[in-house]
Known about the structure:
The complex is a heterodimer of chains A (225) and B (240).
Chain A: H1 2-18, H2 20-52, H3 57-72, H4 75-89, H5 94-119, H6 123-131, H7 136-166, H8 178-189, H9 192-221
Helix pairs in contact in A: 1-9, 2-3, 2-5, 2-9, 3-5, 4-5, 5-7, 6-7, 7-9, 8-9
Chain B: E1 2-11, E2 14-24, E3 29-34, H1 40-47, E4 55-60, E5 63-64, H2 72-78, E6 79-82, H3 94-104, H4 110-123, H5 139-151, E7 157-161, H6 169-184, E8 188-192, H7 196-202, E9 205-210, E10 213-218, H8 220-225, H9 230-239
Parallel strand pairs in B: 3-8, 3-9, 6-7, 7-8
Antiparallel strand pairs in B: 1-2, 1-4, 4-5, 9-10
Helix pairs in contact in B: 3-4, 3-5, 4-5, 5-6
The structure holds adenosine-5'-diphosphate and magnesium ion.
Amino acid sequence: xxxxxxxxxxxxxxxxxxxxxxxxxxxxxxxxxxxxxxxxxxxxxxxxxxxxxxxxxxxxxxxxxxxxxxxxxxxxxxxxxxxxxxxxxxxxxxxxxxxxxxxxxxxxxxxxxxxxxxxxxxxxxxxxxxxxxxxxxxxxxxxxxxxxxxxxxxxxxxxxxxxxxxxxxxxxxxxxxxxxxxxxxxxxxxxxxxxxxxxxxxxxxxxxxxxxxxxxxxxxxxxxx
Amino acid sequence: xxxxxxxxxxxxxxxxxxxxxxxxxxxxxxxxxxxxxxxxxxxxxxxxxxxxxxxxxxxxxxxxxxxxxxxxxxxxxxxxxxxxxxxxxxxxxxxxxxxxxxxxxxxxxxxxxxxxxxxxxxxxxxxxxxxxxxxxxxxxxxxxxxxxxxxxxxxxxxxxxxxxxxxxxxxxxxxxxxxxxxxxxxxxxxxxxxxxxxxxxxxxxxxxxxxxxxxxxxxxxxxxxxxxxxxxxxxxxxxx
Lengths: 225, 240
Ligand SMILES: Nc1ncnc2c1ncn2[C@@H]1O[C@H](COP(=O)(O)OP(=O)(O)O)[C@@H](O)[C@H]1O
Ligand SMILES: [Mg+2]
């Protein structure tokens, strides 16, 4: 019993260390997938957040419908719809179809985050901007959004972490990221547990780095407090 | 400078301004007094179209302004506003607060804006605070920055909505002094205030509002020493 325990963990650490180069490569794919999808999702999110606060009913309906669909269907279904849908009309790689699927998915949650943070900025800020002769656009861009973005950072960081972990679903359409590599190794060695744990360690490292980066950005933006 | 005729304003069913007639001449300082809820802020906010009138006419420098066709951003550039709660931009330094609108709206060069911004900050006694964020300032300093920020657009008229009401008593004086200096330079000003000392000393005219109407208007001496209307007498005796 005790011996089995020791053997397992020493085997695990050995695997972790020996496989570091291939997993490092796979981690880069995971990171790229996360970065690209989150980057696009930020624009999608901002766009739909602005629709939601536009006070134009049809625009609000569009935004609500989008958010409703994303929230109401499984992410894996969205990813497969993007994969089959996009690859059938377009020469697009599995990587990019998943990236767009994840962007579509995260965009809805980010839209809600932005909407909340924009609405949390007091009316007085808008009035101050408008009273100085700024247009609605300029007031939004120069006064409201910078403050809203700062307030959105903690929940955004949270969403980034979710996005990072969700990128593991790319394995199901053959993108060679961390989870795909781990399951392949598991199948080849009949030792799923070891490789799943290796995979978990890599995700923990990535999440740790991401948390650090978000924390740094938060600190940088907090100079005015 | 400003002519208001038969101004009516509703919030839903609530009739807040009931046929206001009101004029301000160039370089005149008018103080608006009256109980809370009488419509002073709404009146002021109609003048720079932060609130839209329901009926009546608002003329600025002789020109009638139609919110539907006229460029309100252009109108607002000529009408500076100072708020009770300052509404400084917290993510910008003091100087950035002051130069933001001149750069973004008037498109003047950054170096020119900075030069003028520093001059304005000197003028309100905050030359040494240019690179500080608003969170580091006292209420009185914040309000003086807000005044400098409004002045940076070189407005024709300045509106003040209870500029000292949110301040600790010991900080009221510095803001009132800044406003006095401004009045002495000939700035046209409309000031909603509960500072009767200021109204008495600085105002050319005092306007008493009650329940959405202007009840009485006159020189400070007349209003404070022998108000004609019973309502004005009651209001003054309730606060003095
Ligand atoms: N945005 C608004 N929506 C609805 N009612 C309002 C709004 N702003 C002011 N009011 C009402 O209008 C009346 C006048 O308010 P206000 O102009 O702020 O008075 P004052 O500045 O003299 O205290 C009050 O009864 C107030 O409750
Ligand atoms: Mg008021």
